[in-house]
Amino acid sequence: MNKQELVKSVYDKLDGLPLKQAENAVNAVLGSIKDELAKGGEVNLVGFG
């Protein structure tokens, strides 16, 4: 799954959410993960995968 497919999946699951807002939500989550890793931090997604 690439980023655009993830955005579409979020959009499909959240009925009524505009596509742009789904994209913003995905970007916010990925940005938070990226920022934490850039600081040398750790990201744990329990139950993911």
TrEMBL record:
GO terms for molecular function: DNA binding; structural constituent of chromatin. Keywords: DNA-binding. Pfam families: Bac_DNA_binding. SUPFAM superfamilies: IHF-like DNA-binding proteins. Gene3D superfamilies: IHF-like DNA-binding proteins. Belongs to the bacterial histone-like protein family. This is DNA-binding protein HRm. It comes from Moraxella caprae. The lineage of its organism: Bacteria, Pseudomonadati, Pseudomonadota, Gammaproteobacteria, Moraxellales.
